[in-house]
Amino acid sequence: MTQRKQMKRLAAPKGMKILRKAGIWTVRTHAGPHTAKNAVPLLVLVRDYLKLTDTARETRKIIKAEQVLVDGRPITDVQFSVGFMDIVTIPASKKSYRILFDEKGRIVANETSEKSNFKLCRIEKIMQTKHGVQLTMHDGRNIITKEKLGTGDVLKIEVPTQKILEHYPLKEGSVAYIIAGKHAGETVKISGIIPGTITRRKQIQFKIGERDVTTPHDYVFVVGKDKPAISLK
Fold first, then answer.
1. Same domain, yes or no, for 90 and 132?
2. Is 130 in the same domain as 192?
């Protein structure tokens, strides 16, 4: 059974920042590097977020003509899932956008003046192979390395080559960006890490003003050592 290409706007994931009553239908994301609830289809991003086109037909022409790059690669699939930390570049306008979350946990596209040839990726899984250590990143990519790294650490990588440029460990003192929960969109400094148990996930501690806050480790995305390595606004 083939997946439908569209869905009702009212049923779209909460993270998709679109006008729910502007019409009946919108595009559905294909299975891809990001989960459906944390991604937007490329067509929706170009038309509804970046406002580069007015109609779906016009947007399809631009995408099919390879005029939109995601992480340095031309993407021609209008349903391609674009998600957190992806870099979307429009060569014709020489503009780049980084995908982030706002304070309500919704996906936003922030224009950036930084170089568009790198992105941050969080390590979700580590596996030993005969070629070295295989890292599975939050955006679905796999990287083979000889370096000793930990789950939850973040790598600054060059795209599309996947060359590792820097390593930001998940540890006390690191700067992190909260990607879910009631503190989504906040930039914080990690003050402590509480190990997980059989019944509870690992917790990360930080301060919001003078208040101590604890949140699950998968809500935390390290973005630098002493300060953010990228613009988050």
1. no
2. no
The CA-CA-CA angle for residues 147, 153, 154, to 5°, reads: 95
- Write down the pLDDT at residue 4: 65
- Under-70 pLDDT residues of the chain: 1-4, 6-26
Range of the domain at 129: 118-168
pLDDT confidence of residue 27: 73
Instruction: Say yes or no: 72 and 36 in one domain.
Output: yes
Q: Kindly state the tokens that stand for 109.
A: 């596209």
How does DSSP assign 58-91, residue by residue?
A: HHHHHHHTT--EETTEE---TT-EEETT-EEEET
Can you give the CATH number for the domain in which 132 is found? 2.40.50.740
Q: How far apart are CA 115 and CA 119, in angstroms?
A: 9
Structure tokens at 162: 């996947």
Check which CATH number belongs to the domain holding 20 and give it.
3.10.290.10
The confidence score (pLDDT) of residue 68 equals 95
Burial class (CB in 10 A: 0-12, 13-18, 19+), 108: middle
204 pairs with which residues across the strands?
A: 193, 215
Distance, CA of 233 to CA of 226 (rounded, Å): 17
- Our count of domains for the chain comes to 3
Looking at residue 37, its amino acid is K
